[in-house]
Amino acid sequence: ANMEPGACMVVGAQWGDEGKGKFVDMLAEKADVVARCAGGNNAGHTVVVDGKSFDFHLLPSGLIHPNCVCVIGNGLVVHLPGLLAEIEKNEKKGLTDWVSRLVISDRAHLVFDLHQEIDGLEEKEKGGSSIGTTKRGIGPTYSAKAARTGFRVCDLYGDWAVFEARFRTFVANYQKRYGAELQVDIAAEISSYKQMAETIRPLVKDTVLLMQRELAAGKRVLVEGANATMLDLDFGTYPYVTSSSCTVGGACTGLGVPARSIKAVYGVVKAYTTRVGGGAFPTEQLNEIGEKIQNIGQEYGVTTGRKRRCGWFDAVQMRYSHAINGFDKLCLTKLDVLDTFPEIKVGVAYRVQGKVLESFPADMNILAEVEVEYATFPGWQTSISHVRNFSDLPENARKYIHALETLVGVKMHWIGVGASRDAIVIQE
User: Which one of 32, 45, 119, 232 is the catalytic residue?
Assistant: First the structure.
């Protein structure tokens, strides 16, 4: 994939875990800047380099490329202890020279340990209708941001007495709400933040200015989407969503780059569908098919180790995703997981009381009762993980890809056929 000057964005097109990490990593080799614009350490990307496995949650995964500047944008929420632990863990695996290449926006919001505790308490309060969050404090931090009570990275470098007073009030307000269940050692927190503020000081910059300069200089900027379209706060399966904008719009709001600077949008989509946590999932297969996909595809979360729910490719959901993001090309991943299936199904329409729905429903109760209309395709029943040319794929695999392209309306330019970095087929 050749990157042009300007920005291109990689977006998860389904419910997450589409294999964005490997694809971003492939593009990052050609990028000058890799930036994240939303979420926090609730994302998880694993990248394997020279047999070493690096885990990225908050860090942009371009950090393993020595020529890449990596930006944690203003739209992120940053848990500093988690960030420093992640850096240390990757340093032990051989990550070097990151200080000169990692930049944190002074407008990003801070996740405190107390936000993580509140995340757990809020889930507990919801009881049976819990959303299944990663308990990383992401939701409570974005709530505080929207309520205008949040703390930003720049607050660490102002008048410390003001920071301290604000923090005490902040904690007191939460304790009023949660009572004795919420224990906070205020003095310890404040002193630890004072220390961490000095540690990260060299990394903190005005990223709006940085992005403006990089784009003006004709640099190639890769915006690494986290989470996915169906987890977007506005467009996802609300309330079973994350708390940020993970669609293409997040690049503008979460990095401060103009819409016209985004030259290309690439969606990443699995050859089937998975989701983690609660919420409607129309093509889910609660049967041996779902289990088979889960076992072959090793569908466990990178961040939490949770089992993922599995089902067939959903063209209705993908058309909706394309309507929001306007994909230029798609990267289809994990096609090899379907190697042993005699037949493969694709959801092509939703019906409610016999009527075909015109669009993806907003109401979760409607989504939970849709009947999915499927199209069935013959499988190829042979291993494709060694294939590197599109024409060498089995005929039925090529037919399946072309059918998906027709149903969604976007070309599948990259096709993932295995776990290794080179297990990718390009359809010219």
Answer: 45
